[in-house]
Amino acid sequence: MPKVSSVKEIFEHINEGFQPDKAAGVDAVIQFDLTGEGGGKYWIRVADKKAEVHEGEHENPTMTLIASAEDYIAVINGDLNPMTAFMQGKIKVKGDMGLALKLQTMFDMG
């Protein structure tokens, strides 16, 4: 995936990196709460080896990822290691931690 410069761009192209085989058995809603300049709220429903992207806030997500837009773009672009970002508190996860770990492989990120 080419480098992205905005949160909107990430979610417009996220399905390009989606790996249906890695999402087998997953039925979940992943909320992204990206703060700061250029941030936004998006959610992805993963079910039946498909992913649907929506803008806004889901009322009952399985997992919520919270980060600044700047840090999340750095992770997507491979400039910031996701595990390092998590350990440093730059990325926070509420809910299903196992799903957070699977997120990277399902969407071929970083």
Summarize it:
By secondary structure, the chain is α+β, with helices and mostly antiparallel strands. The protein contains four helices and five strands. The chain has a single domain, classed as Nonspecific Lipid-transfer Protein, Chain A (2-Layer Sandwich), CATH 3.30.1050.
Characteristic terms for this protein:
110 residues; alpha+beta; Nonspecific Lipid-transfer Protein, Chain A; 5-stranded mixed sheet; 30% strand; globular
Note down, in words, how this protein is organized.
The chain is α+β, with helices and mostly antiparallel strands. It has one domain: SCP2 sterol-binding domain (Nonspecific Lipid-transfer Protein, Chain A, 2-Layer Sandwich), CATH 3.30.1050. The protein has four helices and five strands, in the order αββββααβα. The protein has a five-stranded mixed sheet. The chain is globular and about 35 Å long. The protein starts with 6 loop residues before the first helix and ends with a helix. 26% of the residues are buried.
Give the SSE map.
Blueprint: H1 7-13, E1 28-35, E2 40-47, E3 50-55, E4 63-68, H2 69-76, H3 82-87, E5 91-95, H4 97-106
Parallel strand pairs: 1-4
Antiparallel strand pairs: 1-2, 2-3, 4-5
Count of distinct strands? 5
Number of structurally distinct domains:
1
- Main-sheet strand order equals 3-2-1-4-5
CATH architecture tag: 2-Layer Sandwich
How does the overall form come out from the CA principal axes? globular
Q: How many strands, what sense, and barrel or not for the largest sheet?
A: 5 strands, mixed
Oligomer: single chain
